[in-house]
Amino acid sequence: MPKRTDIHKVLIIGSGPIVIGQACEFDYSGTQACKALRNLGYEIVLVNSNPATIMTDPETADVTYIEPLNVERLEQIIAKERPDALLPNLGGQSGLNLCSELHQAGVLDKYNVKVIGVQVDAIERGEDRIEFKKTMDELGIEMARSEVAYSVEQGLEIADKLGYPVVLRPAYTMGGAGGGLVYNKEELKTVMARGLQASLVGQVLVEESILGWEELELEVVRDKDGNMITVCFIENIDPLGVHTGDSFCSAPMLTISEECQKRLQEQAYKIVDSVQVIGGTNVQFAHDPVSDRIIVIEINPRTSRSSALASKATGFPIALVSAMLATGLTLKDIPCGKYGTLDKYVPDGDYVVIKFARWAFEKFKGVEDKLGTQMRAVGEVMSIGKTYKEAFQKAIRSLETGRYGLGHARNFDTLSKEQLLKMLGTASSERHFLMYEAIRKGATTEEIHAITKVKAYFIDQMRELVEEEEALIANKGSLPSDEALISAKKNGFSDKYLSQILEVSEEDIRNKRIALGVEEAWEGVHVSGTQDSAYYYSTYNAEDKNPINEDKPKVMILGGGPNRIGQGIEFDYCCVHASLALKKLGFETIIVNCNPETVSTDYDTSDKLYFEPLTLEDVLSIYKKEKPLGVIAQFGGQTPLNLAADLEKNGVKILGTAPSVIDLAEDRDLFRAMMEKLEIPMPESGMATTVDEALDIAKKIGYPVMVRPSYVLGGRGMEVVYDDESMVGYMNAAVGVTPDRPILIDRFLNNALECEADAISDGTHAFVPAVMEHIELAGVHSGDSACILPSVHISEENVATIKEYTRKIAEEMHVKGLMNMQYAIENGKVYVLEANPRASRTVPLVSKVCNIRMVPLATDIITSELTGRPSPVPALKEQVIPNYGVKEAVFPFNMFQEVDPVLGPEMRSTGEVLGLSASYGEAFYKAQEATGSKLPLEGTVLISVNRKDKDGVVEVAKSLYEDGFKIVATNNTHRIITEAGIPAERVNKLFEGRPNCSDMITNGDIQLIVNSPVGKDSVNDDSYLRKAAIKAKVPYMTTIAAAKATADGIHYVKSHEAGEVKSLQELHNEIHDK
């Protein structure tokens, strides 16, 4: 069947900012779809609010809009672009929901837009809990017993019928948002109320608990003729009760009988056929190993987190194929070197794939490390090995949590068997590490299975690892025997972990292993739908089947590993662009990475992909095999930088900025000396390794001070300390402080404007495209602050100073490639805060707003010693950028309801959005709208600020009052506002009696909240205000700076007609040379 000819222009909706439950796997699927459709000759219009993605690059689609994802904005875009078709199933839950809303609002009919891939009614059959149940009943497929509730009272009645515990699942949500498992009536009331609110349609399913059953997933692909294939069978090793996004899982299924897999496949095919999805669908089942009952849990009629995993686990590019099928091609039309055509595909890899999640509990004080039906993970790794043990241990060392094996995590090896078993009672991110120590302390397989419901097979595999480790430890202090070492390597024990448990150097172990001829071998995973493309994984359990090319010079790029807070998709963006730029320069590119969600681990981003952990052992093995001319470490965030020095010691050539320069920037004493030499001011500071040293330094500098550990990304462990008592507390709690990794203490700049500059440097010249101004003042981590690019409130003189300082520093440090500088301006004086001689998280942002290809330029410089090309920097010109971009961060506070959502020096955002406009006020307004908290244009604003912010509050109140808002304020704030002659009403704080401001928020009487926290010196905590704001979905500002920007934004939008939307390509055409 040929492709459809009645459509020419296709609209693709992206998934918006990265949040828990929806990460960069949708950038991977959207980018693949653009590739597929453009190859077939279609014109593509792409809409997404997330600037850190490859899909929003001006080259990926024909026309790109970085706009908020909602019906109003999409109608504007559809009216302007007039697409023939909409492909909604590649933008995650956001894309699906938006397609449904556009259909209901009549927009699709009005402009005659056809939906391809998955029909609107199919979305409803898959997503609406009642519709889905009706469909299943018709097919005779069993589901958990359940009923739908539209109110808390109904929920209570249903739960009485089914018997507690019950599971609550809101309709049209993802990542298990708003749902949960409840054991009694009180819990039901709380979670039910939350769920009704989280659901698009105020509908929550109450269902019987099937805790402890096996959770099994199938990834199915169907074409328009009804041909179906199963791409992948996934077995969750954690039983039901832990969200699949948090669950540790394997592909293929390791403990499920062929017969059972066949039954699952038959049911999945029936379901997918009845819903009539074209493309990929993820079907989740529960199987009771005792009664052999199979029930279907849910389907996702779209590409999902599991489909990204399934694609990378099997080599079958689901999103690419889905996009081709959506245009009317069938599986029989797509050729494949291995199977002939794709309709003959079967998952037949002879290897084991493991996925393990990465969490961020340490970032959120007061959150219990507890896993349930609501997703908590912020990222994941995938590992491939020949055996379960090899793949499992490889996954652990891919996580970059400082653990290279399963044993001796935290203090678990000091606890008794009873204590460990008790801790295993609650599922947590540490469960498998606790199991390991429990086995070591003598827990039986039955005891562990009874508590965790993890199957005996997996516990026994772990037991064999524990026994092997114990046998090795018997010879502590010396190298293991030949047989013991060979066996340990085959079972996945890493060099580093062996060196830790045996207390010998990693190098000795590596040398002995190589002398024995025990080296990594590689096997390929064939990419379906291609002639002979493959990507590679290492194993110690097979012969080497890794063909090496010699015809082109090679360069290796180290990726960023798993997503986490502080190191996300922005670094993957840099690696992808570096790879594409290297190809253009005539190199063969090699990428090493282990994150299944990303574009960098797509088979054709690089010439050769190694799906491997970023550890010394794995990278050195690949280096030795491939013999590249050099390795690029500056694009993958902190991950490759932490490896760079060790790689260099082992003879690896690091291209670009030297590792010694990176150390220089981290070493405060050396850096300060350099700043003194260049006569560039810095806030007074010092380094301490003991409590007394810390107190002395603080006395010299004067409180408040900013304290933090050295060598971290994303502000881990950073705090502002106001007095001696807090300082003692901080130093006592700080872990891993050693003389070579001290605690850094700086004077905290009060009320200073923070800004940053990204530079491209060739070692003698540097170019700064624009200076970014942070909206939040100093003290809020740069990754969490909203920022404006190019800057608005910085004087021309200061901008010139910042550019000059940046150039001086880049030249003095001989930076080759990218560099990020952070500055603060206090009373008109520019201070330098820090230098990061590497790609930073703002690179995609600057590239898109300023229309400059930062990564390709940097790549050209980094490889100039190999190519002999002249530096591109002298030719770069200052440009006039007539449009502003405002970046706003997106936080997971709605997933962590017990956390006070206040911003500080420790980064907590998971993603970001971008608002673009010719006016900075409107750009800020659009950025807020894109995060999902649209600013009101009328109504009541509640203002309650602390003493420090009293000066700025009048200006904000005046602006909002003049724009027609009614103002209510708490005691002191009320007095200040009314004294300035602005009418306001006084309202009670929580402890002052009822009705109070919390009641007003809950009742929906407040449309906007300005509340700066009183801080820990206050007797009465006011975090309840901000928590209430999140629950009631009211936009809230926790800093005066953000409140001013909000008032400006509202004022601009109220006083101007809505302008037309402009594509990124149009905005870029308006940029011109100075």
Distance between the termini: 54 Å
Fraction of helical residues: 25-40%
**What are the low-pLDDT stretches, counting only 5+ consecutive residues below 50?**
none
Radius of gyration from CA coordinates: 28 Å
**Could you give the count of β-strands?**
44
Query: How would you classify the helix and strand content by structural class?
Result: alpha/beta
Q: Helix count?
A: 37
Task: Estimate the global geometry from the Cα principal axes.
Answer: globular
Strand content: 15-25%
Mean pLDDT: 90
Q: For the report, how would you describe the main beta sheet?
A: 8 strands, antiparallel
Overview of this protein structure:
The protein is of the alpha/beta class. It is built from 37 helices and 44 strands. Strands 30, 31, 32, 33, 34, 35, 37 and 38 form an eight-stranded antiparallel sheet that branches. A seven-stranded antiparallel sheet has the order 14-13-10-11-12-17-18, with helices on both faces. Helix 5 crosses helix 6 (129-139) and helix 18 packs across helix 19. The protein is globular. The two termini are 54 Å apart. The mean pLDDT is 90.
